[in-house]
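Record type: ASSEMBLY
Status: queued
Input:
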Amino acid sequence: MNNELQAQRRKQATLARRNVYLETPKTESFFEAMTEEQRAEFFRRSKKISLANERRRNINHKILTALGIIVASIAALLAIIPIFFTFLNSFMSSDEIVDNYGVIFNSLSGYASGGATFLSKTPTLKLVPQQVTFEQYKNLLFMSPTYLLKFWNSFVLVVPIVAGQMIVACLASYSFARYRRKRREVLFFSYIILMLMPFQVTLVPNYMISDKLGILNTEWAIILPGVFSTFSIFLLTKYMRQIPSAYIEAAKLDGANEWQIFIHIALPTCKSAIYALVILLFIDYWNMVEQPLVLLTDPDKQPLSVFLSQINSAEIGIAFAASALYMIPPLLIFLRGEEYLVEGISRSGVK
Amino acid sequence: MGKYTDFTQADTTVENKAATVESVSSKKQKRSNAITAVNEDPAVRKAIKSKKLKLRRRRKFLEWGEFTLYLLPSLAGVVIFFFWPLVKLIKTSFQRSSTNTDFVGFTNYSRTISNEAFVKAAKNTLTFAAISVPLAVILALLLALLLNSGLPGKSVFRSILLNPMMVPVASIVLIWQVFFSYNGVLNGWFADWFGADPVDWMKSSKAQVVIMLLFLWKNLGYNMVLFLAALNNIPTEVIESAKMDGANALTRFFRIKMYYLSPTVFFVAIMSLISSFKIFREVYLLTGDYPYDTLYMLQHFMNNAFTHLDYSKLSSGAIIMCVAMIIIVGVLFFAESKFDADVEE
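Status: finished
Output:
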């Protein structure tokens, strides 16, 4: 009886609900109020508007992209033109160079006395040589042994510094990364401060110690402080601290000692950083001017970077070839290891 | 990444945290108690305990020794070539001269600070850094944002813009002279197009602008790569959800991207600061030992002091610069941590 009653009530409620629903007047939407033709018209119009919007957005996007490409291209052109310019000019004959730019360097020779005079003849900027010759290179390589000597000097200075610093830095940063105690952190911090010091500060101590050790005016006065520079230790430590501890734990469980962990885990993981550092260090020391000026007073031992600044108007004919030749080693290294460099730099900045 | 949360966490020996060591040792004691419960003789227990302690100390020492061994080459070199001479330098800076070891107090310092050439050099160097470092940061950031905005050929542009970094300054100086000397190409163009009077770029107040261009040309690529990496590391979901909430590009940049970029901005600023102190190279290669007034950099001052081997001038000058550098970096550090704290609130 109870069940019957419930069923009855449910039925009533359903009916009531249905009635309410039926009794509410059907709302006529904007859409439904339209006739067939109006509806079609409405569809057509809204389609058109949305299409136009999309087109406008596309055009805007295209314009923006084009603008971006133009700006980026200008930046890229500005970046690359001086390099191209040097290379192209190095294929000109000496006469052509003197003809084009002689006027610049003629007025430069009176530079120290402060009397730069404006000559009526303006130099002509030429990208493409009239006639491609290797005259400059020939002169440079076979006629002027000083250039070759300086070129060799640069290598003698840079290669040991880069190799030495990498070995020392890998070992030291492994230690800094694996053994973290309070005193080590203090030492590491002092390394960072040392890294931040400009040459103006570090050159004086270098000079004093070289003087004391009697290596002043030899290559060692530059190579030894270079080897112990702390820049790469800073970056490599940052890298090695990112090695997941699980790797090292696993290796330890397998019975690896520290040296094996260093060789088989730490070094391979930091491969890109090591490549990047080699490139960065190479260009940095290939570029050096301050140290040789102060620590190497013997001009026969100075690298090409110092020598190139002493171009006078008589040597202008081969100056472009010398500059181009000097650019080639770092550019080759760059082309070889660009992706490593980019990856290395990228990860160095991320905390 | 927290300072102590890396893989070294796994190391069980934590020397400088006394509490941890204590708890570990008390645990070990309990264990040893359990083991030696059979042996009630206190003397034997003590002996076992001291032996264990010795073993632990030995292991700790071995660990210390091994890692010190790795550090040793670098530490020896750094101490010999940097730290020890720096200490000596501080000593000489208080002496009358390198031969006369009378203590003269701060006389050398006051003499250096009142030295006209030093003041000029310091002013020029600082002005250069103050203008070119922010420019290098901002322009590089803009370039990175441009390249990151879905531009086709991003990697091509990146490697082209990175090229100047790899070019030695000495090679590029020639071109700069061709463009900027008094009879140079740029003056020629200006005269042709606008009938402008020639500007003596390298020997006027514009000289710093020329050097700045060279600095930016060289350093923008490196900074840009750093920023590109940081931009790639911003989680896309955050940007997407901000977009959904109706944040426009500017808001997205200042409210979200800047938060993720701030450590990189700091890093880039420090790196640019270091290279801005190296600008002597460019100046020297362009203009030689005696440049125009506004290009007289600190290194010129030091080189002059080196030629006379004026140790009191050299040492006091170097120490002043060292202190100044530490202060500048300290201020940057402070600003960065403050900015970070502000953002995280």
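Annotation: The mean pLDDT of chain B is 82.
Annotation: Chain B touches chain A through 116 residues (CB under 8 Å).
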